[in-house]
Amino acid sequence: MNFNFSGAVLSQAIASGIMLGGLFALISIGLTLIWGVMKIINFAQGEFLMVGLYLAYFLVAWGHIDPYITILVTVPFMFFFGIGIFRATISPILKDPVMNQIMLTLGVSLILQNLALMLFSANVQSVHTRYATWNIHIGPVVISAPQLIALFGSVICTLAVWYFLKTTDSGRAIRASAQNPTAATLMGIDVPRTYLLAFGLGSATLGLAGSLMIPFYYTQPTVGVFLGLIMFIVVVLGGMGNLVGCFVGGLVIGLAETVGAAVFPGSLARVFTFSIFIIFLLFRPQGVLSKRQT
Amino acid sequence: MSLKMPYIRILVVGALICLLPLVLDTFYMHIAVLVLIWAFLACAWNIIGGYAGQHSLGNGLYMGIGAYTVAYLVNRFALTPWVGLLVAIALSAAAAAFIGWIVFRYALKGAYFALVTIALTEAAVYVVSNIPALGGAGGMQMEYRGNSLAYMQFAGQSGYFYMGVLMVVFILLLTQWYKSKRFFYQLIAVRENEDAAEALGVDTVKAKIKANVMSGVLCAVGGVFYAQYFLYVGPRSVFGEVVSVQILIYAIVGGLGTTWGPVVGAVLLVPLSEIARGQLGNSLPGSQLLLSGVVMVLTMLFMPFGIIGAVARLRQRWQHRSATPLVDSQGGEAS
Distance between CA B114 and CA B112 in Å, rounded? Predict the structure, then answer.
C-alpha cells in the first residue's frame, strides 16, 4: 500500500473522484427510481446503459452529430426502449416473487449483452470529439470539461426527476403507487400505467447518461457489467428510491474508487469499493440518509 | 410408491448413463462431462437456492475456492489433488460458514442476500487477480502428470465421465436422503415462511448457515473437478458473476427445489449451448449466452417452477381435470 502520496496526488484524486461520483450518480438515478417505485430490481439496468452508450456512439461516430445534441434522440429512444422491455418481460411477472423478477432481468441482461456482442463485436469503441481535449486547470488539479458537464448533467437530472416527482400529477401518482399500490388504485390511479411511466423514465435517464458519457468514456458489450454493479452499490448506499441519497452514494463510491486507486496497488481498489458495499448492506441496508423503515 | 423407489431410480439412471461412452465420440463425450460438471454444481446450488430459498448469486466464490486450492497445491507442492480436495472442502466450509454467519445474522434476505453474494464473488475476482502466486489475472495452468486416479487425471474423457457420474449420483442420493430429514424440512419451512418457521421453533439462522456450508462445500468439490478436467483455472472462469449465474440457470430452468431439476436443466441446456458455441462460436460470438438468456426469460415468463414444475402441473391437471387444481407454491415436487 502507498500512503506516501503528495497533496497534489490526493487533491487530483479527490477532484477526479467527485467527477466520477457525479457520473455514478447519474447512471444510478434510473435504478433507484425503478427499485423504489416498483420494488423491482432491474439487473439489466447496466445493459440499458450499454444500449444508450452504443446509440450515442453511433450517432456521433457515424451520424457526425454533436454528442450533446444526441440527447434529443437518446432520451426518447431509451424511454420507449424501457417501456418495450417492461411490456414484453417485466409487466407479466410483476406479482411473482422477487427472485423470479431478478432471474428474469438477469436473462434480459444476458440477451442484451450478447446481442451487442454479435452485432458490434467485443471491440472497445470510443469517439474523438473536440471536447475531449478541453481541460480546466485549478491549481495543480486538472478537470476535463466533458466530465464536468456530466457532473452538471447529473445534478440537473437529479433535480429534474425530484421536481417531477414532487410537483406534477404524474409524479405524485408514481409516489403514491410506490407507497401503496392498492390505495393508489382506489384513488383512481392507473397503477400499471404509472409503473410503465416510471420504468420508461428510469430507462430514459440512461439515454442521457449515454450521451453525456460518450465524449470521455467508451462502450463495449460488457461495459454494463461493472457499471451495473456500481449502480447497485450506489443505490444501496443511498437507499432505494432516495434521489438525494443516490447522489451522495455516487460521490462516496466515486471517491472510494479514485482515492482507493491512489492507495491500493492494481485493481485491488475495486475490493475496497465492494467492501464498502458489503458493510453497508450488513449495517445500513436502508441507505445513508434514509431512516430505518418499520 | 415405495420409499426406496426414488433411490433406485437414481441408481438405475446412473448405471444406464455409464453405457454412454460406448456410443459417444470425443466431442460428445466432452459435452457429457460438461453436463455432469454443471449438473453437479447446479445440484449443489439447489440446496441453498432451491430448498432454503436463499438465491445466492455468488456460488462461484466456493467453486473458485475449490478450483484455486487444488490448482495451487498441485502446482506449488506437487501434492495429489485428493489432498487438495480435502483442503478445498475445509476452506470452503470455513468461508461458507463465516459468510453465512455474518449475512444471516444480520437477516439479509431476498435481493440483498443476492447482492452481497455477487459483491463477494466479484471481490474475489479482483483479489485473486492481484495475487502473483495464484497466477494473477492470467490464472494457472496445471501440469498433466499422466493417466492415474492418484493424480485425478485421465488420458481420455471417460475417466472424467465416470467420476462425474459418481459425483452426480452421490449428490442426487444425498439430496433425496436429506429430503426426508428434519434439516430439509426446516429449510423448506424457512423458504415458505421464515417468521412462521421461527415461531415454530426452527433456528432459521442456523439452518440457513448449514445449508450455505453444504452448498458451498459441494460447489468447491465441483470446482476441484472442474480444475482437474480443464487443467486450468482463471479468475473469471471459476469466480465471478458470470459463472455464478451459469451455476443457477440450470437449477432454475430444470426446477428449483426438486431433486432432479438441476440435472434436467443441465442435460437440456449444456449440450444446446455447447453446440451453439461449436457451430456459431466464430461467426456469432455470444450465441450460447444469448440462448441462456432467452431460456431464462422464457422460463420465468411461462414456467416459473421450471420444467419439473411444469410437468408436475400438467400431470396434476390431467389427474384432477374436473377437480380444483391443487397447486403448492413450488409447483409440486417430483420425487
Answer: 5
Rounded mean pLDDT of A29-47?
91
CB-based contact, B252 to chain A, within 8 Å: yes
Q: What is the ipTM of this complex?
A: 0.86
Answer yes or no: do A113 and B111 touch at CB < 8 A.
no
What is the Cα–Cα distance from B107 to B305, expressed in whole angstroms?
A: 26
Q: With beta carbons less than 8 A apart as the criterion, state whether B72 and B82 touch.
A: no
Give yes or no for residue B175 having a pLDDT over 90.
yes
**Distance (Å) from the alpha carbon of B120 to chain A's nearest alpha carbon:** 7
Cβ-based neighbours of A26, under 8 Å, separated by 6 or more: A150, A153, A154, A157, A205, A208, A209, A212, A250
C-beta atoms surrounding A139 within 10 Å? 9
Q: What is the CATH number of the domain that holds B179?
A: 1.10.3470
User: What is the per-residue pLDDT across A232-264, written as a single tens digit (0 to 9) for each?
Assistant: 999 988 888 889 999 999 999 999 999 888 888
Mutation site, B301, B303, B329, interface A, largest A CB count within 10 A: B301
The residue of chain B with its CA nearest to that of A44 is B293
Interchain CB contact of B244 with A (< 8 Å): no
CB contact under 8 A, A271 and B127: yes
- Predicted local confidence at residue A288, as pLDDT: 63
Which candidate from B119, B126, B304 shows the least CB-CB separation from A267?
Answer: B126
Q: Which residues numbered 125-164 in B keep a CB inside 8 Å of some CB on A? A: 126-127, 129-130
pLDDT in tens, A91-140: 888 888 888 888 899 999 999 999 999 999 888 988 888 787 788 888 77
The reply to whether B312 falls in a domain is: no
- How high is the pLDDT of residue A55? 95
pLDDT at A1: 53
pLDDT in tens, A159-210: 999 999 999 999 999 999 888 888 988 888 888 899 999 999 999 999 999 9
| CA dist list (Å): A49 to A42, A55, A208, B105, B283 | 12, 10, 9, 35, 26
Kindly list the structural domains of chain A, giving each domain's residue range(s) and its CATH number in brackets, ordered by start: 7-283 (1.10.3470)
Residue B285: count of CB within 10 angstroms of its CB:
17
Domain containing residue B160: 5-288
Residue B328 has pLDDT above 60, yes or no: no
Is residue B323 domain-resident? no
Identify whether B270 is part of a domain: yes
Q: How many CB pairs under 8 A join A and B?
A: 127
For chain B, how many structural domains are there in total? 1
d(CA B170, CA B316): 30
List the beta bridge partners of residue A138: A141
From chain B, the residues in CB contact with A100 under 8 A are 300, 304
- Has residue B10 been placed in a domain? yes
CB contact under 8 A, A89 and B304: no
- Mutation pick from A38, A99, A284 vs chain B, by most beta carbons of B within 10 Å, is A99
Partnered with residue B232 across adjacent β-strands are B141
- pTM for the full model? 0.90
| Cα distance between residue A188 and residue A172, in whole Å | 12
The H or E element spanning position B323 is none
